[in-house]
Design a protein that fits this description.
Radius of gyration: 19 Å
CATH superfamily of the largest domain: Tetracycline Repressor, domain 2
CATH class of the largest domain: Mainly Alpha
Number of strands: 0
Oligomer: single chain
Order of helices and strands: HHHHHHHHH
Low-confidence stretches: none
Structural class: mainly alpha
Largest sheet: none
CATH architecture of the largest domain: Orthogonal Bundle
Number of helices: 9
Mean pLDDT: 93
Length: 201
């Protein structure tokens, strides 16, 4: 087992985050606690508090890793499919988001189940903004004269709708035949919402 003297604070922080992310591939964050995380890495809870501040901030750092992973996947897909038009890219983003939610369900859920008793710090908000920027850039390509407020509302509407589909599919609550699933619903959403959005403006 590793001991305190074996890691710098940055090394220990990375190890803790990797350990929690690995845990979340198989179990819900409901089964975690500061003591359990400390036991996983063989350090005291107090040492982890010194590094992260508190347990809520530790989970916030885990969520930052998740946002980075989602962003990396979206940008990687975009690089592979840069010949697609803006609407096709938005569909690709939505499909990749669904795939991430399916493959990392507990990690993905923690993003939205975690609550802070304070404002979201700038370093986390910047990550969130960068993801919405990916959507808004494509929306602006579809409607070049759209106002920023319109782009912001449309990007949040698309994300909230896609997220809801992911959540209901994850909970097996779509209440539909097998031919109707998260993928088919996302395709319908992007096609019809964008068509209506462009006309309504």
């Amino acid at each position: 087992m590793a001991r305190r003297k074996d890691h710098t604070p940055e090394e220990l922080k990375a190890w803790v985050l990797d350990s929690v992310l690995d845990f979340l591939q198989h179990q819900s964050a409901d089964n975690l606690s500061l003591r359990k995380v400390a036991k996983m890495v063989d350090y005291s809870p107090g040492t982890l508090i010194n590094i992260f501040g508190n347990y809520a901030h530790l989970l916030l750092a885990v969520n930052a890793c998740t946002l980075d992973q989602i962003s990396e996947r979206l940008n990687e897909k975009l690089t592979q499919a840069n010949a697609l038009d803006a609407q096709q890219q938005l569909l690709l983003f939505a499909q990749e988001y669904l795939l991430f939610a399916q493959q990392h369900v507990f990690q993905w859920r923690l993003l939205f189940e975690h609550r802070l008793d304070e404002e979201v710090p700038d370093w986390q908000q910047n990550r969130i903004n960068q993801l919405f920027d990916l959507i808004e850039i494509r929306l602006a390509q579809l409607v070049p004269n759209a106002q920023q407020a319109e782009l912001q509302q449309a990007s949040r509407t698309i994300w909230a709708s896609v997220h809801g589909i992911c959540l209901l599919e994850s909970d097996d609550k779509l209440f539909a035949s097998q031919s109707i699933n998260g993928e088919s619903m996302i395709q319908s959403l992007i096609k019809h919402y964008l068509a209506a959005w462009k006309v309504s403006r």
